[in-house]
Amino acid sequence: MNDFLTAIGLVMILEGIPYFAVPEQMRRMVIHVAELPDGFLRKTGLVLMCAGLLLVYWVRG
User: What end-to-end distance do the CA atoms of the chain give, in Å?
Assistant: First the structure.
Protein backbone atom coordinates (compact mmCIF):
# COMPACT_ATOMS: atom_id res chain seq x y z
CA MET A 1 0.00 0.00 0.00
CA ASN A 2 2.91 2.35 0.71
CA ASP A 3 4.25 1.85 -2.82
CA PHE A 4 0.80 2.57 -4.28
CA LEU A 5 0.37 5.79 -2.32
CA THR A 6 3.91 6.84 -3.19
CA ALA A 7 3.17 6.27 -6.88
CA ILE A 8 -0.05 8.30 -6.64
CA GLY A 9 1.82 11.13 -4.91
CA LEU A 10 4.51 11.16 -7.60
CA VAL A 11 1.88 11.25 -10.34
CA MET A 12 0.18 14.20 -8.63
CA ILE A 13 3.51 16.06 -8.40
CA LEU A 14 4.38 15.40 -12.04
CA GLU A 15 0.89 16.33 -13.23
CA GLY A 16 0.92 19.54 -11.22
CA ILE A 17 4.28 20.90 -12.40
CA PRO A 18 3.08 22.17 -15.82
CA TYR A 19 -0.03 23.81 -14.33
CA PHE A 20 2.18 25.64 -11.85
CA ALA A 21 5.00 26.50 -14.26
CA VAL A 22 3.08 27.52 -17.40
CA PRO A 23 -0.65 27.84 -16.65
CA GLU A 24 -1.49 29.79 -19.82
CA GLN A 25 -0.01 27.13 -22.10
CA MET A 26 -1.68 24.34 -20.12
CA ARG A 27 -5.06 26.04 -20.51
CA ARG A 28 -4.57 26.14 -24.29
CA MET A 29 -3.44 22.51 -24.34
CA VAL A 30 -6.47 21.37 -22.32
CA ILE A 31 -8.77 23.17 -24.76
CA HIS A 32 -6.96 21.54 -27.69
CA VAL A 33 -7.18 18.06 -26.13
CA ALA A 34 -10.91 18.57 -25.47
CA GLU A 35 -11.39 19.04 -29.21
CA LEU A 36 -9.63 15.80 -30.22
CA PRO A 37 -11.76 12.86 -31.40
CA ASP A 38 -12.68 10.22 -28.81
CA GLY A 39 -11.06 7.43 -30.82
CA PHE A 40 -7.70 9.19 -30.83
CA LEU A 41 -7.87 9.79 -27.07
CA ARG A 42 -8.75 6.14 -26.42
CA LYS A 43 -5.88 4.85 -28.56
CA THR A 44 -3.46 7.26 -26.92
CA GLY A 45 -4.68 6.22 -23.45
CA LEU A 46 -4.28 2.54 -24.33
CA VAL A 47 -0.74 3.07 -25.60
CA LEU A 48 0.19 5.04 -22.47
CA MET A 49 -1.29 2.39 -20.17
CA CYS A 50 0.60 -0.39 -21.98
CA ALA A 51 3.83 1.60 -21.85
CA GLY A 52 3.34 2.21 -18.13
CA LEU A 53 2.61 -1.46 -17.51
CA LEU A 54 5.75 -2.47 -19.40
CA LEU A 55 7.81 0.08 -17.46
CA VAL A 56 6.53 -1.18 -14.11
CA TYR A 57 7.09 -4.82 -15.19
CA TRP A 58 10.61 -3.99 -16.34
CA VAL A 59 11.53 -2.08 -13.16
CA ARG A 60 9.87 -4.50 -10.73
CA GLY A 61 10.68 -7.68 -12.69
Answer: 18
Return the axis-axis angle of helices 2-21 and 23-34, rounded to nearest 10°: 110
The 10 Å Cβ neighbour count of residue 28 is 11
pLDDT tens across 50-59, in order? Answer: 999 999 999 9
pTM of the model: 0.75
The DSSP line for 5-61 is HHHHHHHHHHHHHHHHH-HHHHHHHHHHHHTS-HHHHHHHHHHHHHHHHHHHHHHH-
Domain boundaries, the chain: 2-60
